[in-house]
Amino acid sequence: MKKEEWIKGEISKWRSEGVVDGTTADALLARYKAAESRIGWGAIVAGSFGSLLIGLGVIALFAANWNYLGRAERAIVAIAPLLACGGAAVAAKARGWRTMALWEPLGILWFVSTIAAACLVAQTYNVGGKVPDLVLFVAALTLPVVWITRSVVAMSAWPALAFVYAAFGYNWWYGADASTIVNALLMLAASIPAYVAFLLRHPPRMTLVWCQIVMGFVYSFGMACMLANYFDCSVQTGILVFWGCAVLVLGVGAAFRLPVWPMAAIITASLAATPSVSPKVHLSIYAASLVLAVVTTAYGIVKRRLSFMNIGSTLLLYLILAKFFMSEVDFTVKGIVLIAAGAALAALNVVLFRTKRRA
């Protein structure tokens, strides 16, 4: 028996037994029917991939015939897909369509069309300027697309413009320019309202999880990489930068109950902690890494969260074993210790898994 048939049968049984009245039964059936008619994750992925192919195909078609068009024709051809996507968005808003199967492909196509139109028009009319200025202009044009469509792909791709802006804005002769990095951080912050609006839409679970994973790492690991590389931080300072970004994402994730963001923050902080075993890194940084590993492991055990426990215990074993293997102890002893550590981690997983199942 299919799941939907079983649920309908159960609701009918509840009505006949007097567990629920007719109004409640009808409301349950209507709610289930709405959930049943919801377009699945596969349709969203297929539509998104199709939109991406369409966008790339249109660009290829224009590129093949570009030399045969005059300036005015080039501008019209470049802007036409952008205007078409905008018109489709207006029509969808007017009709109240909210399904991700529409807005995700439309967001991708609109995003690609906007970038292509900006670059093609600039090339057609030989608009002067520097690459960072063009990136900033494209970011300003595509930001409304991200806000309106709340497309996962568009929201995930848009912060890349901030990283590109920072990369091209770096002065290789005179070093870091604080104004450039501030502008890049403001660009990242500008994408947050679209992400919040996306969450308020209550998207399908797989879409929600995927977007949280991508954006969590963008705001933690990506932002930390940009800051550390831009200011040419030392290993110790770089670790602190990564931890600072991880704490920021962890706090926001905990405050707004984003279940994936704390995980992204912990992974980012743990990855940053791995260089602390180097003799060149101050002992206090290594001690802080140990504290991070112990606290993460303890949290995973207390809350019965296998993922946190494994991240914390793996980091703890790495920090201890890395120092141990740097010593002059015989390789036989090192091998025995390594086997014992692996066995202990496996046993801890089994015990915690059984405890979780009994709860």
Question: What do these coordinates show?
Answer:
The protein has 359 residues and is an all-alpha fold. It has a domain at 38-151. It has helices at residues 3-17, 22-36, 41-64, 71-95, 100-124, 131-149, 152-169, 178-190, 192-200, 205-230, 235-255, 261-273, 283-302, 306-325, 331-358. Helix 10 (205-230) runs parallel beside helix 12, helix 11 (235-255) runs antiparallel to helix 12 and helix 12 (261-273) runs antiparallel to helix 13. It is flat, with a radius of gyration of 26 Å. Mean pLDDT is 77; it is low at 34-39.
Helical residues, percent: over 70%
Kindly report the average pLDDT value. 77
Oligomeric grouping of the chains:
single chain
Largest sheet: none
Note poorly predicted spans.
Answer: 34-39
N-to-C SSE string, H for helix and E for strand: HHHHHHHHHHHHHHH
Helical region count? 15
User: Shape, please?
Assistant: flat
Classify the secondary structure makeup into a structural class.
mainly alpha
The amount of beta strand, in percent, is: under 5%
What's the number of extended β-strand segments?
0
Q: For the CA atoms, what is the radius of gyration?
A: 26 Å
Distance between the termini: 30 Å
